[in-house]
Design goal:
4 strands, about 65% helix, binds Phenylacetyl coenzyme A
Length: about 325
C-alpha cells in the first residue's frame, strides 16, 4: 500500500505512475526487499531521511553512555562494575558502527557531531532523564535497552544495507545489555525492602520515558508514512510500543512490583495489554531541549569533545608520520 503513495518533501504525495523510470526501479527494489547499497541511486529525500535517523541513532548511543557512566565508580560490587564498564564501552562501539554506516551516505562523522553539539540534531529523549539510584541502572538496561532492542530488531530489516547490517551486530550486544539489566533489577526486587522500594521507584520514574522512546503516536508521526514507504522503518511507532508493553508487563509482574500505570490491563479482545498514553507534552518539551538533563548532557558531550582534542591530534600526527615513513621506504 505504501509503495503506491510515495510522499516526497518537495512534491507531496506522488503516485507510482508519476515516478520516472529510475525512481520506479528504486521503489521496486524496496518492494522486493532488495537492500539499497551506498553506490545505488536513491532519492535525495531517502538519503536525507537516513542521515537524520541514523545520525540521531548514533548520537543516542553516545549520549546514552552518560546516565550509566555516572554510576561506574559507584557500582555496588566489582562484578557489577565490570559489567557496567563493558556495557558502556559497547554503546560507544554502537555509536561508531552507526556513524560509519551514516558516512556511506556522504556525510562525515565530524559534521554529524558538530550538528549535535550545535543543538541541530536530536538524540533519544530517554537520555534526558537522570539516573538517581542504583536500581535505575538495572532499569535502564532492562527497560531502555529493552525498548531499544524491540525497535532495533525491526530495523535489522531496514532497506539500507549498511544500516541493516549495523543493526544485526548491535542487536546481539543489546540483548546482553537487557539481560544484565533485568538481572540487576531482579536482585533488587527480591532483595531487602529498601532495595525493592528503589526498584519500584526506578520503574515508576522510567516507565513512561521508556515508552516515549518509540516516538509520537502514529497519527502525530511526521516521518512515518514516507519512512515506511521506503522501508527505512518497517514497523510503526505504535506497533513497536505495543510490542514492548506486551513483553514487559509480565516481567514486572514476575518481579512482584506494582505496575507503573493504572491503565495497564490485559485486553482479551485485542490480545494485547491496554496502557495509558504518556504525557506527550512532556515528550515534545524534552525533545525541544527542556528535559531535566538536556543542558548537562550536551555540555558533557561538548567538553568531552574539546578535552579529547589532544588525543585526536596525537593520533592523526602519528598516522601521518607512519604514512610518511612508509612512503619514504617504498
Ligand atoms: N527522542 O516522525 P517521527 C539506545 C522526533 S538507542 C527524540 O515518528 P521517526 C541504545 C523525530 O526525530 C535509542 N526525538 O520520527 C542505548 C522527529 O523529529 P524531527 C535510539 C524523537 O524518525 C540504550 C519527531 O520526533 N534509537 O537506546 C523521538 O520517523 C541504553 C517526529 O517523530 C533510535 O534512534 C525520541 N524518542 O521515528 C544506549 C532508533 N521519537 O527529526 C545507551 C532509530 C521521535 O522531525 C544506553 N530511530 N522523535 O525534528 C527510529 O527508529 C526512529 O527515528 C524513531 C522516531 C522511532 C525514534
Amino acid at each position: 500500500m505504501y509503495a503506491q503513495m510515495i510522499k516526497t518533501a518537495s512534491d507531496g504525495v506522488k503516485s507510482r505512475d508519476d515516478m520516472d523510470d529510475v525512481e520506479r526501479a528504486f521503489q521496486d527494489k524496496i518492494d522486493n526487499d532488495i537492500k539499497i547499497e551506498p553506490r545505488d541511486w536513491m532519492p535525495e529525500d531517502y538519503r536525507r531521511t537516513l542521515i537524520r535517523q541514523m545520525g540521531q541513532h548514533a548520537h543516542s548511543e553516545v549520549v546514552g553512555q552518560l546516565p550509566e557512566g555516572n554510576w561506574i565508580t559507584r557500582a555496588p560490587t566489582l562484578e557489577r562494575k565490570a559489567i557496567l564498564l563493558a556495557k558502556v564501552q559497547d554503546e560507544a562501539g554502537h555509536g561508531l558502527y552507526l556513524y560509519s554506516a551514516a558516512e556511506t551516505l556522504g556525510v562525515t562523522r565530524d559534521e554529524l557531531v558538530e550538528l549535535l553539539h550545535e543543538g541541530k540534531m536530536k538524540y533519544s529523549s530517554i537520555f534526558n532523564y537522570p539516573t538517581l539510584n542504583w536500581a535505575d541502572i538495572g532499569a535502564v538496561g532492562w527497560l531502555v535497552d529493552g525498548a531499544a532492542i524491540v525497535n532495533q530488531v525491526a530495523l535489522q530489516r531496514t532497506s539500507y544495507g549498511p544500516y541493516s547490517r549495523a543493526m544485526i551486530r548491535i542487536c546481539k550486544e543489546e540483548s546482553f545489555h537487557a539481560r544484565q539489566g533485568y538481572h540487576a533489577i531482579m536482585q533488587m526486587a527480591f532483595g531487602t525492602p529498601e532495595q525493592k522500594r528503589q526498584a519500584q521507584d526506578a520503574v515508576n520514574r522510567l516507565w513512561f520515558p521508556a515508552i516515549m522512546m518509540f516516538g509520537p503516536n502514529d497519527s502525530e508521526s511526521t516521518h512515518s508514512e514516507q519512512s515506511m514507504a521506503w522501508k527505512i522503518k518497517v514497523k510503526s511507532n505504535d506497533e513497536l510500543r505495543q510490542q514492548f508493553v506486551d513483553q514487559t508487563v509480565p516481567q514486572i509482574e514476575y518481579l512482584g512490583l506494582d505496575l507503573p500505570d493504572p491503565g495497564i490491563k490485559w485486553n482479551e479482545e485485542r490480545g494485547h495489554y491496554d496502557f495509558s498514553d504518556p504525557d506527550w507534552s512532556e515528550f515534545f518539551d524534552v525533545i525541544k531541549g527542556n528535559g531535566p538533563c538536556n543542558v548537562d548532557r550536551l555540555q558533557n558531550r561538548v567538553s568531552a569533545w574539546e578535552d579529547g582534542a589532544w588525543v585526536r591530534d596525537g593520533l592523526l600526527a602519528h598516522a601521518r608520520k607512519k604514512a610518511a615513513r612508509k612512503m619514504a621506504a617504498e
